[in-house]
Design a protein that fits this description.
- This protein is an alpha+beta fold and 290 residues long.
- It folds into two domains: 116 residues, D-amino Acid Aminotransferase, Chain A, domain 1, CATH 3.30.470.10; 151 residues, D-amino Acid Aminotransferase, Chain A, domain 2, CATH 3.20.10.
- The chain has seven helices and 15 strands.
- Strands 2-1-6-5-3-4 form a six-stranded antiparallel sheet. Strands 11-10-9-12-13 form a five-stranded mixed sheet.
- It starts with a strand and ends in an 8-residue tail after the last helix.
- Bound molecules: N-(5'-phosphopyridoxyl)-D-alanine.
- N-(5'-phosphopyridoxyl)-D-alanine binds next to helix 5 and strand 12.
Length: 290
């Protein structure tokens, strides 16, 4: 018997089911899910799971894709069509399909809903026949920001927070130490109150930006001094200049931080010079082929 999935309003053969490549679940991990155990054809702890689904949705500011009663009907229908009496039902809700942009779609799009079900082994008869083994690992959820993963929900929420405050980018800091990390999709540079050009060193807490690396090449070639060192929010707030780099931001001066002007609120001389250096590189100057 071929499996059936519910995908955005339709019951389809699961092997033919597909989602749009611009679905934000696929692009950003911008979605949530639930799994409910099905035993003897019943949903086990259904209310707990559906309450958590609603909570997860609320936490990432997504509406329910349909009222809870209708969702129950879909879950039951998927379980029925797949003839699952012992197994699980899986549901996933994402922020839908939109042109790639970290912040939420500006024109609302309906959330995407996918539901599947599968059979599993019968419920075990005794604990003795239901055992495993374990190992310990450090909790790395999500401590590997150096990997350019599509698991971007925190970046999406940070960018949206910036947009909600009328800003273009969110600069993220370590909540435990107040040390600055990076933007939602950019590397951060400052000229501190002493006039020192600084960017945070590479480690697991930030993505090694290619534009950051390119700019460092240009700085070295030009003999422009800079420091790779950590700095905190206080130093950021006191900076003369703040600018961001990325493949799509190039060298982008930030004129305000948390509503207050950065330096004199104008493009600073260092950012302007580095913008020009980078523009030369882009337009085929030195290192363009590297
Ligand atoms: N983002 N940090 C993060 C978290 C990023 O997502 C990016 C790039 C950067 C800068 O990296 P690079 O200089 O290699 O572009 C830093 C891309 C532009 C994006 O997600 O659209």
């Amino acid at each position: 018997m071929s499996k059936v999935a519910y995908v955005n309003g339709r019951y389809v053969a699961q092997r033919e089911a597909s989602v749009n490549v611009e679905d934000r679940g696929y692009q950003f991990g911008d979605g949530i899910y639930e799994v409910i155990h099905v035993h003897a054809g019943r949903f086990v702890d259904e209310a707990l799971h559906l309450d958590r689904l609603e909570r997860s949705l609320r936490e990432i500011r997504l509406p329910m894709p349909m009222p809870r009663a209708s969702l129950r009907v879909v879950l039951e229908e998927v379980v029925r069509r797949n003839r699952v009496t012992e197994g699980l039902v899986y549901m996933q809700v994402t922020r839908g399909v939109a042109r790639r942009d970290h912040a939420f779609p500006t024109r609302p799009v309906p959330p995407a809903l996918v539901v599947t079900a599968k059979r599993t082994l019968p419920f075990p008869k005794a604990a003795e026949g239901w055992t495993g083994t374990a190992v310990t690992v450090p909790d790395q959820r999500w401590a590997r920001c150096d990997i350019k993963t599509v698991n971007l929900l925190p970046n999406v929420l940070a960018r949206q927070a910036a947009r909600d405050q009328g800003a273009t980018e969110a600069i993220m800091f370590d909540p435990a130490t107040g040390m600055v990390r990076e933007g939602a999709s950019t590397s951060v540079w400052i000229v501190d109150a002493q006039g020192v050009l600084r960017t945070r060193p590479l480690d697991h807490a930030i993505l090694p930006g290619c534009t950051r690396a390119a700019l460092i090449e240009e700085l070295r070639a030009e003999g422009i001094a800079f420091e790779e060192g950590e700095y905190g929010l206080d130093v950021l707030r006191g900076a003369r200049e703040i600018f961001l780099t990325s493949a799509t931001s190039f060298v982008k001066p930030m004129l305000r931080l948390d509503g207050a002007p950065v330096g004199n609120g104008q493009v600073g001389p260092v950012a302007r010079r580095l913008f020009d250096l980078f523009a030369r590189r882009v337009q085929g100057g030195r290192n363009a082929a590297a």
